[in-house]
């Protein structure tokens, strides 16, 4: 008799479990909006971390945020897509800025800390691919972040 009640109890438990499975409310997945961010420095009207949604070009950022009247827009490729978690520096206008894409070896050597070998490395780099931003100078062997930070106000594209 005891075994009979155990079997009936087990069957009732199975039926309840099946019924509960059919009645469970569906969980709706929330749409997750992923924000990208970029660090803005220099002559942007807003400096620091800037969060945005979707894909934007540097020109889109300039239109949304604005730049000061001293901004050297020739130092940026405004058609470039902004990469998430990147840093964009917009230098002030400098009449003596050296063009990374057009400067001669002698002009590059006028930059503090740039000798003949480094100037040739910069010219070799740009012959393979033009500089799209002044930050690309860090892709040249021998030029790191400290050198870039020292030179960036004197560079343009």
UniProtKB/TrEMBL annotation:
Database matches in InterPro entries: Endo/Exo/Phosphatase_dom_1, Hlx-hairpin-Hlx_DNA-bd_motif, RuvA_2-like
Domain Helix-hairpin-helix DNA-binding motif class: 106-125, 135-154
Pfam short name (any one): HHH_3
Protein name as it appears in the record: DUF655 domain-containing protein
């Amino acid at each position: 008799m005891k075994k009979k009640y155990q079997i009936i109890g087990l069957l009732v438990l199975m039926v309840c479990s099946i019924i509960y499975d059919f009645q469970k409310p569906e969980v709706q997945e929330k749409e997750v909006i992923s924000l990208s961010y970029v660090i803005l420095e220099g002559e942007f009207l807003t400096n620091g971390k800037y969060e945005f949604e979707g894909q934007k070009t540097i020109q889109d950022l300039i239109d949304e945020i604005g730049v000061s009247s001293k901004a050297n827009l020739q130092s940026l490729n405004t058609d470039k897509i902004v990469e998430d978690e990147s840093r964009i520096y917009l230098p002030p206008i400098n009449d003596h800025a050296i063009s990374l894409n057009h400067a001669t070896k002698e002009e590059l050597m006028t930059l503090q800390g740039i000798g003949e070998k480094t100037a040739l490395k910069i010219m070799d780099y740009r012959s393979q691919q033009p500089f799209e931003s002044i930050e690309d100078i860090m892709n040249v062997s021998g030029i790191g972040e400290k050198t870039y930070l020292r030179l960036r106000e004197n560079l343009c594209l």
